[in-house]
Design brief:
The chain has 18 helices and ten strands. It is α/β, with parallel strands linked by helices. A five-stranded mixed β-sheet has the order 1-10-9-7-8, sandwiched between helices. A five-stranded parallel β-sheet has the order 3-2-4-5-6, with helices on both faces. The protein is globular and about 65 Å long. The structure holds 5-phosphoarabinonic acid.
């Protein structure tokens, strides 16, 4: 269990002195106490800390019973949500799914598609074409129950369901995940009699992947949520240890030591396309938690080796404000050996007999060394394999590290005041009642 996640920061040692690292560690141990004792800013949103050990068997059974009900009766499930009500589920499902399952048509579970994470008319029209053709169900996720993007998408999908399946049957095909009392979605779900799951009051959107927000879609996609919760709860034990080599404390302290010396942009690097959306989840977690009051490391991501052929040049030689966190996977799930070719016309026989993963690992190692030589420090975060268990651990690890890290720069990690600004303008421009004055002001500016 100790090594579910390994953090290795040897390569930052050319950029930071021992004193700088230990000073930052001291501070991280201080904010770790603040987090676990619930004495910091935003401490009414700490429910996620206990989720892995507090989710009841009853709740897991209820989630699995929806999955069983829909497994043989629907072909497509649309999960409607945005931000924290979308990215965790998308990250886990992409990481765990066969990359080509749709083309192979071998799915034993319904395929999961997403909506409400954009306002694109083309996307939505094409989705409706799919829903017309296939037997479908829908999970609508919104903690506030008032977010525009998912609410609009859900209105369109609900109307389509009611026309296609009738009012009664469509209410059997819709499940809502929302607040226990507040918001338009809660009222609508109660009125229409939808099966409903509650998002706890003290868990914010981007910390909610281990509630029904993430667990329900992940179970619907056929994955083992008990194992995911086990990974998270094993990681919780590790994150709660008050020690210098607590990996969450190590990660938070090293990234902040770099930040305070001018490395302002962190790139999460993966070498496996299945982890692309995990990086999107991570970016939201850190970006929305830390980017406030003119402070915070800017989180970005690349998918290597793909992006070595696009962003690699900048990372190697561009402005020196970047550091990398490499999310490395020790063992792939499958094995592929590069064969020998007697003619060797492509000159690749030096690779004969090697695993493709060895090429990937040497690309990873070679790139880490090259980037360090180019002035880009890197931190290694290593997991054993991509599985429900390790993803559960990773979700918890980064959430915990994010709490420790945000407190190090004296930020409340659990609010997102800046997200409201675009909404006010959008509502005004769309003519929402109550926004008339702002609308007039904005129109004068454009
Ligand atoms: O982390 C957050 O709180 C946000 O990203 C929300 O998840 C996102 O804005 C969606 O909100 P809601 O679930 O209320 O629709």
């Amino acid at each position: 269990m100790k090594n579910i996640i390994k953090v290795d920061y040897k390569s930052v040692k050319g950029f930071l002195t021992e004193d700088e690292i230990s000073f930052s560690k001291e501070r991280a141990l201080g904010t770790y106490e603040t987090l676990i004792n619930g004495t910091g800013r935003g401490n009414d949103f700490l429910g996620w800390l206990e989720l892995p050990t507090q989710i009841s068997d009853e709740l897991v059974d209820k989630i699995e019973s929806v999955a069983t009900r829909w497994r043989n009766s629907v072909e497509v499930i649309v999960v409607v949500g945005i931000g924290g009500s979308y990215l965790g589920a998308k990250a886990a499902i992409d990481a765990l799914s066969h990359s080509f399952s749709l083309h192979l048509g071998k799915n034993s579970t319904p395929s999961i598609v997403f909506a409400g994470q954009n306002l694109s008319e083309d996307y939505m029209s094409e989705l409706m074409e799919l829903l017309k053709e296939r037997s479908s169900a829908c999970v609508v996720v919104s903690k506030s129950g008032t977010t525009t993007e998912p609410a609009v998408a859900f209105r369109i999908i609900k109307q389509h369901f009611e026309e296609k399946y009738g009012k009664h049957d469509s209410s059997e095909r819709i499940v809502a995940v929302t607040d226990q009392a507040r918001g338009a979605l809660k009222g609508l779900a109660t009125q229409e009699g939808y099966t409903t799951f509650v998002i706890p009051d003290d868990v914010g959107g981007r910390y909610s992947v281990l509630t029904p927000v993430g667990l329900l879609p992940i179970a619907l996609a056929g994955f083992d949520i008990k194992s995911m919760l086990k990974g998270a709860s094993d990681m919780k034990k590790i994150c709660y240890q008050k020690s210098d080599d607590n990996p969450a404390v190590e990660y938070a302290s090293v990234r902040n030591a770099l930040y305070s010396k001018g490395w302002k942009i962190e790139i999460l690097v993966n070498y496996n396309p299945k982890l692309q959306y995990f990086a999107e989840w991570w970016k939201q977690l850190f970006g929305e938690s830390e980017g406030k009051e003119g402070k915070g490391i800017y989180p970005s991501s690349v998918n290597f080796t793909t992006d070595l052929h696009s962003m690699g040049q900048y990372i190697q030689n561009g402005e020196r404000t970047l550091f990398e966190t490499v999310l490395s996977v020790r063992q792939p799930a499958r094995k592929m050996i590069i064969s020998d070719d007697p003619q060797n016309l492509d000159g690749l026989n030096f690779l004969s007999g090697k695993r493709l993963d060895e090429c990937n690992k040497m690309a990873e190692l070679g790139t880490r060394i090259a980037h360090v030589d180019g002035g880009v420090p890197n931190i290694l975060v290593e997991i054993g394999e991509i599985s429900e268990y390790s993803l559960g651990a990773l979700f918890y690890f980064f959430e915990f590290a994010c709490g420790v890290s945000a407190y190090m720069i004296d930020i409340n990690p659990f609010d997102q005041p800046g997200v409201e600004d675009y909404k006010k303008n959008m509502f005004a421009l769309l003519g929402k009642p109550g926004y008339e004055e702002l609308a007039e002001e904005l129109r004068k500016r454009v």
